[in-house]
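[Discussion] Sanity-checking designs against the backbone

I'm trying to build intuition for which residues belong where. Below is a structure token string of 279 positions. I'd appreciate it if someone posts a full sequence so I can compare it with mine line by line.
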């Protein structure tokens, strides 16, 4: 995602959709307080049906964003508008659906729908954090280098480190070889979320080299060069792991947000069916 998109969608056109959402919420509150259903407010009154239809329409609109955001031909500015509307109207629908039910929640299908919508919105709030925070990480941590360029530089650093270590004894050569062959980025979910794993072979090699005792100016020079190479490699690994961590967190969020959104849509259909065929 473009970083400008992530930084500006909340304030899209002067907080257009925030203002719309607040205005609708105020009007709804006034209407709710003013209307007299003659009984306990619930979804079966004219007010409840009206805002039930509005809430259902908003849920469908929000679900459509998942399709719309993949239509790249719509343009970045229009995509910002859809994302801004998705965020603010998503929060709005939680409150409108409460007014629709007359704040009557219990252990039933209709309340399940509200809870699913609530959890969808709450997970969406974390998604907002992802959109705002992680795109800057995904671009900034690599400092202009692509993942391919980082991997190529890491390979070159391994070659240079093995050459620098050739005259420094078997122990140093062994840890340098292990750092070249065993260092990895990613793997299990735990590994993908670690930025500076303590068992990283490159980290271990750097600590070993910095604490190594050598004799002669030539070996000291080689150790300093080797330490610089491993330090550079550690920096690149940290950038790459930070990227992987951010991408993993975003992916994990989607694995939760999308299924619960689908669950909310299924519950909405069941809710409408139950209302019109059983009530």
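Best answer:
Here's mine. Compare freely.
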């Amino acid at each position: 995602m473009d970083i400008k998109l992530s930084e500006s969608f909340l304030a899209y056109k002067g907080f257009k959709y925030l203002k719309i959402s607040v205005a609708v919420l105020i009007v709804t509150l006034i209407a709710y307080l003013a209307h007299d259903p003659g009984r306990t407010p619930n979804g079966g009154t004219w007010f409840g049906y009206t805002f039930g239809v509005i809430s259902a329409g908003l849920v469908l609109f929000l679900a459509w964003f998942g399709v719309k955001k993949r239509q790249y031909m719509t343009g970045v500015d229009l995509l910002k508008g859809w994302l801004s509307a998705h965020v603010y109207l998503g929060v709005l629908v939680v409150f409108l659906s409460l007014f629709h039910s007359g704040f009557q929640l219990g252990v039933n299908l209709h309340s399940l729908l509200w809870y699913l919508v609530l959890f969808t919105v709450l997970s969406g709030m974390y998604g907002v954090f992802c959109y705002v925070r992680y795109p800057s990480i995904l671009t900034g941590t690599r400092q202009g280098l692509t993942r391919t360029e980082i991997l190529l530089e890491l390979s070159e650093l391994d070659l240079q480190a093995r050459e620098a270590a050739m005259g420094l004894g078997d122990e140093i050569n062994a840890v340098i070889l292990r750092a070249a062959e065993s260092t990895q980025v990613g793997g299990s979910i735990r590994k993908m979320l670690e930025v500076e794993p303590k068992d990283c072979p490159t980290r271990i090699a750097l600590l070993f080299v910095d604490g190594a005792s050598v004799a002669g100016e030539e070996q000291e020079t080689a150790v300093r060069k080797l330490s610089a190479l491993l330090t550079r490699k550690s920096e690149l690994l940290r950038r790459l792991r930070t990227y992987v961590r951010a991408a993993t967190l975003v992916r994990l969020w989607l694995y939760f947000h999308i299924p619960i959104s689908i669950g909310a849509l299924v519950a909405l259909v069941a809710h409408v069916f139950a209302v019109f065929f059983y009530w």
